[in-house]
Amino acid sequence: MSLPSVPPDDDLAEGGEASLQLRFDHALAGRRMDQALAEAYPDYSRSRLRGWLDAGRITVNGAVPRAKDLVVGGETVVVVPEAAPRVDALPENLPLEIRHEDPDVLVLHKPAGLVVHPGAGNPTGTLMNALLYHDPRLADLPRAGIVHRLDKDTSGLMVVARTPRAYEGLVKQLSTRQVTREYEAICIGVMIGGGTVDAPIGRHEIDRFRMAVRGDGREAITHYRVVQRFRAHTHVRVQLATGRTHQIRVHLTHAGYPLVGDPVYGKRLVVPRGADTLVAEGLRAFRRQALHAAHLAFVHPVSGDTLAFDAAVPTDFAELLALLHGDLARHPEEGPVDVWR
Predict the structure, then answer these.
(1) Can you tell me whether residue 197 is helix, strand or coil?
(2) Quick one: residue 121, left, alpha or beta (phi over 0 = left, psi -120 to 50 = alpha)?
(3) What is the pLDDT of residue 207?
(4) Cβ neighbours of residue 97 under 8 Å, at least 6 residues apart?
(5) I need a labelling partner for 159 at 20 to 30 A (CA). Which of 117, 210, 278, 281 fits?
(6) 10 Å Cβ neighbour count for 83?
(7) CA-to-CA distance for 258 and 240, rounded, in angstroms?
(8) In Å, how far are 74, 192, 232, 253 from 341, measured between CA atoms?
């Protein structure tokens, strides 16, 4: 049976020299080596695996195979991912809301509006820039120790590794789904009950800045449960089993309940019929996806202690919930039904 591989592109920052080991399933017998590797390590692109194969970073039963070699089944495979280059982003003295700090890990609360990694259009002013100022040693770790991400306009808890040992440990926990991450969200539409969305996610075929549910995408699983139904919206608690880019936003939209304020995956404004001006204006004014990383739990990669953290929703999120609660209280006879758009 294969061991899980480490996802590098979505939830996790690639890097480190930690090897990824598994045994080829006998069902892969007769397949070309490059094809079998792609199936055994679905979280890595074929081109990346081929590059590591050509560079000798993949061994099968202790030897470096060729791409055209055929698999027998049962072979021991060891992949050593290529280390990420040293971070060259500039340190910046930016505020950090730190919830926990020790020599190996940081847990922080990221506000909505803060970009995690520098990129096109955001070379500075990011969480990574702030982390490098706070601890210059992070420049020697892949992506300054950032092992999972939050979208720019998603608020909430993140854990950051401060040492190679911690980085390796946290990456392994994320890859084996041992890190608990729960989110608060406000959706458009009235859910009947909770559920699970198990639908693969990949890059949108036309719009490369978006993700989409697609048959050839990577495995993605999202669990959700209802916290409160309103007249035209639902407050939900979401738990990630995987961590694909934009996963919650894509999955809830796929289920028919896009997030309030989502500029990419949302739909036009929905206001309960007969809602007062404050409710209507509050919904119109909420210009980011209503998503908050509220709970984070993991095993400390060095001490072995279980650490758990909670973060209350930010002010804008709480105010929107209060408006929706007030609207429901003023229309108790109607309940969660009729809307106008």
Answers:
(1) strand
(2) left
(3) 83
(4) 108, 109, 110, 111
(5) 210
(6) 12
(7) 16
(8) 58, 20, 10, 17
3-state helix, strand, coil in the chain (%, to 5): 25, 25, 50
> What is the model's pLDDT at position 28?
92
pLDDT tens figures, 274-307:
999 999 999 999 999 999 999 999 999 999 999 9
Those residues with Cβ within 8 angstroms of residue 77's Cβ, 6 or more apart along the chain or in another chain:
21, 22, 23, 24, 37, 40, 58, 59, 60
Q: What is the DSSP letter of 338?
A: -
Say what the alpha-carbon torsion angle 110, 112, 114, 115 is, to the nearest 10 degrees. 100
Token reading at 233: 């919206």
Burial 244-259 (b: 16+ CB within 10 A, else e): bbbbbbbbbbbbebbb
Check residue 16 and give its pLDDT. Answer: 40
State the pTM of this model. 0.77
- H-run or E-run covering 156: strand 155-161
The mean pLDDT of 155-175, rounded to a whole number, is 92
Sign of CA dihedral 50, 55, 59, 63: positive
Q: Model confidence over 205-261: pLDDT tens digits?
A: 888 789 999 998 889 999 999 999 999 999 999 999 998 999 999 999 999 999 999
pLDDT digits (tens, 9 = 90+) for 58-102: 999 999 999 999 999 999 999 987 765 666 789 999 999 999 999
Q: Give CA angle at 334 (329, 335), nearest 5°.
A: 65
Is residue 12 within 8 A of residue 171, CB to CB? The reply is yes
**Cβ proximity of 8 and 18 under 8 Å:** no
Q: Which residues are catalytic?
A: 151
- Residue 298: predicted pLDDT: 98
Q: What is the distance between the alpha carbons of residues 260 and 88, in angstroms, rounded to a whole number?
A: 36
Q: Could you write out the DSSP letters of every residue in 48-96?
A: HHHHHHHTT-EEETTBPPPTTPBP-SS-EEEE-PPPPPPP-PPP-----
Distance linking the first and last C-alpha atoms of the chain: 51
